User: Fold these one by one.
Assistant:
Number 1:
Amino acid sequence: MARINENFLKLKAGYLFPEIARRVKAFVEANPDKAGQLIRCGIGDVTEPLPEAARNAMKAAVDELGSRDSFRGYGPEQGYDFLRDSIVANNYAHLGIEADEIFVSDGSKCDSGNILDILGSGNKIAITDPVYPVYVDTNVMIGNTGEGDEDGRYEGLVYLPCNADNDFVPAIPDEPVDLIYLCYPNNPTGAAATREQLAAWVAYAKKHEALILFDAAYEAFIQDPEVPRSIYEIEGAHECALEFRSFSKNGGFTGVRCGWVVAPKTVFGTTESGEKIAIRDLWSRRTSTKFNGASYPVQRGAEALYSEEGKGQVKELITHYMENARLLREACEKVGLAVYGGENAPYVWVACPEGTDSWGMFDRMINEVQVVITPGSGFGAAGEGYFRISAFNSRENALEVCKRIQANLG
Ligand SMILES: *Cc1c(COP(=O)(O)O)cnc(C)c1O
């Protein structure tokens, strides 16, 4: 009989979203008259249509594949030069990152999980709490943790609590770690990290020869010009950080699928015997063996987001979602709730009223205002006492949610 990877059995069976679905279903069954009023502000998926520039570029690319002269088969595993070059020109030209340090992929979720392929076992791994669950679960799957407890905390991981006291950016640990996952602007808290905060993390990583895995999926939502848009704006990051980026949230590519990893040539890991090895070379090797590149039409669509027309359309999307975030923040503030995030990220992170926990708030929101939110505790023990409202919605829905919050939660 085929043996399985038993690490998978340690996983806390994707508790959060199934439990939300279960409670929504129970509500709908108990209140069939109210089912039609439900508004979902739970899932982190975009709602607005794909920018026209991307659609046109993808259609043209499909037509190119339809004639022998312009047909293309397998592309370069690391991505076409046209896209790697425009990624550099539009994001990193001033930061000293080169096109051969960009690895185009089918999205960041895959990249942030796959990166563990090239990292060894025995690393001490730090993650924030609350956290994007992918970082935790991929470490569980590969055997980097022990068993999980009832709160979903796994033995062997270093949890860095993020709360209102530290502005949702974790304090530097007082012990050395080897690997640090940071996501800013943050999902789920909507917090942005300042230059000083990121500089402290880079200094720590350099001191301990640690590797920072920096997830910047929400870069496009940054409004404050002082907030760094890339970890490479921080001096020294070129020696200790990889950056994960995605077209999912800025370009509405959650269903189209395209992202990239930045792996500077100057980031090294070590063998057991102490030999330094360039992370970039390992990632390149892994990519050419296990991946055959993102689809050609998709890469053309992504490239088109950097055209003048495309940039304008992306900006409209960001403005749309950020206006939703502003409205939602305001509505929660008006009823006296403590509100965080939502200023440089499409997530509003709200403290539950005194005496109500995250799931209690989930139940109140669905029962009293028919709005589905995400309980903060689902993202980690330190998320208890908070809930997340996603700004990914139509304006009509966002306004309706605001109206109901103000009418019923005050
Ligand atoms: C949405 C999101 C991503 C992007 O994932 P894709 O696989 O590129 O769609 C990455 N990180 C975080 C934290 C996210 O919320």
Note: The longest strand covers residues 241-246.
Number 2:
Amino acid sequence: MNVPFLDLQSQYKQIKREIDIAFQDVLSNTSYILGKYVKRFEDNFASAHGVKYCAGLSSGTDGNHLALWSLGIGPGDEVIIPANTFIATAWGATLCGAKPVFVDCDADSYNISPEKIEEKITSNTKAIVAVHLYGQSADMDKLREIADVKGIYLVEDAAQAHLAEYNGIKVGGIGVSASFSFYPGKNLGAYGEAGAITTNDDELDRKFRMIREHGSNKKYNHEMFGHNYRMESLQGAVLDVKLKYLNEWTDKRRAIAQKYHNRLIGIDQIILPKEMSYAKHVYHLYVVKISDRENLNAYLNNEGIGTGYHYPIPLHLQPCFKHLNYQKGDFPISEDLADNCLSLPIFPEMSDAQIEFVCEKIINYYNK
Ligand SMILES: *Cc1c(COP(=O)(O)O)cnc(C)c1O
């Protein structure tokens, strides 16, 4: 049996008819950028997250940049960022000319540790970026309390966390803004590059829409500096078709995670992901921790099972941040995770036989 890490083919086959119609519709309207298809998706995505506004963008990375840019963050400013995340979380700060200041993650949630933030805050700190990593919300009440006391912004990087919840509230409107990615492999994936940014704040939404379109509020009148961060109509049309299935797909991810949990819980060598009491985890990734990762990984790959490491190098040890002078040992929990994490296949179309196959191989490996 073959179990890919994710399977975009089988999802496409399932919705092919609707997608083909949506594509044809966009093509015959010759409306390629923003327009009614993107608008419809924006409205539906905002309401799915219980948030007032959503602006369609060209990527999640652009969303991270736009979030801090719109708040006026720039050179001389510092932004608190978890050490354990995908690199694009840090681009928001660096593209604004601000300095990313890294913080270790929590040993249970693998998200930024609120307890370790305060010591990193200086008079230059302007924002905390809360990443809902692997699909699990960060501890937003604690983060908000710090942000409020210090008078700084709390923004969300929700690239991996469509429909995830914190204490029953959907991510996307908890911080001042939230950026989402629709990279094809994400829980809601476009057929190319796409992203979005959500907010409940009227003024911020106005800025998002201006900056994404060259800083203009009307054509050829450029009120502020901007960029081209617009979503393509084809992506909006695809995403709007797929959004209807997202609740169902999220339930399937959660059911797969539960099956993994039930089958693997007895293996002492494996630390399974923990769903925190405040979180509804949407399992973009199912990340286990083990000390002999390389061997188990090679064994699983050899059996036809796709896996991944998310992420093998924490941000403070990335070559591009060498100038910030972090050392190995600065963030032991993130470093331990980077060395020992292994992501198992998880995608809504995964069959029971495939889940069982992965579990059996892991159990066999440890019984050898
Ligand atoms: C995927 C991802 C991004 C970037 O999104 P793109 O759409 O690929 O630009 C940002 N942050 C996190 C945590 C991500 O996983």
Note: The chain has a mean pLDDT of 97.
